[in-house]
Amino acid sequence: AQSVTQLDSQVPVFEEAPVELRCNYSSSVSVYLFWYVQYPNQGLQLLLKYLSGSTLVKGINGFEAEFNKSQTSFHLRKPSVHISDTAEYFCAVRRSSYDKVIFGPGTSLSVIP
Amino acid sequence: GAGVSQSPSNKVTEKGKDVELRCDPISGHTALYWYRQRLGQGLEFLIYFQGNSAPDKSGLPSDRFSAERTGESVSTLTIQRTQQEDSAVYLCASSSPAGDRNQPQHFGDGTRLSIL
User: Of A14, A75, B8, B48, whose Cβ has the fewest other Cβ atoms within 10 Å?
Assistant: First the structure.
């Protein structure tokens, strides 16, 4: 069975500082990996996805993530955060196009002015 | 183009009543998902449709919960005899298989359900 772990439930960071949100997964087969962002009182929006190929994936809003197969990780990074990045971030995995998506518990990012 | 639409956006009802939540996926999306998100928590998978069939219903928490989808479009999630623990935001998502390339899910804004 697949599972997703996001070790940090809350991450406070000062504006313009770098941030890394951690995600680890477990699966016996190859997976597709995603990061979603959820702003208050809204649904989820896709930030970026890893399907295959280059392990460094760039997404919207200046975010990027690196797939590390040996460490089964897919950490999300941004070199300089803005107040508007304050939101909940979810890591997710999927085994195939015809399978459900499993979400991590989420990390709440709070950007401090 | 239009995204995933959910209605109602908010629903307040008394304990013991039945509720029906609706999801209109993006046109052409054959996969449809329902999730539950309790306050301050992550997404809890409920059920997944591929076309009109539901290959995975493993997340439905009890027999009070049911879902159906007709015409490979609209889906309804029904909760019978609601309980206070059913209070949550119910999110719907859809995706297109798009051949052999995996496609992300597109989410609606959710229905906020409050059971008094």
Answer: A14
Nearest to A106 among B42, B98, B105 (CB): B42
- Give tens-digit pLDDT for B27-52: 988 889 999 998 877 888 899 898 88
Residue that the structure tokens 């998506």 belong to:
A101
pLDDT tens digits, residue range B43-79?
Answer: 888 998 988 888 888 899 999 999 999 877 999 999 9
Rounded to whole angstroms, the Cα distance separating B91 from B94 reads 10
Q: Do A51 and B100 touch (CB under 8 A)?
A: no
d(C-alpha A53, C-alpha B101), whole Å: 13
User: Which residues span the domain enclosing B73?
Assistant: 5-98+106-115
Annotate A101-112 with DSSP letters as a single string: EEE---EEEEEE
- State the CATH architecture for A3-112: Sandwich (2.60)
Nearest CA in chain B to A39: B109
- Residue owning tokens 């804004």: B109
Which of chain B's residues have a Cβ under 8 Å away from the Cβ of A100?
A: 33, 45, 48, 56
* Domains held by chain B: number: 1
| pLDDT tens digits, A22-49 | 999 998 788 889 999 999 878 889 999 9
Q: Residue B97 is nearest to which of A46, A97, A103, comparing CB atoms?
A: A97
Tell me if chain B has a CB within 8 Å of the CB of A98. Answer: yes
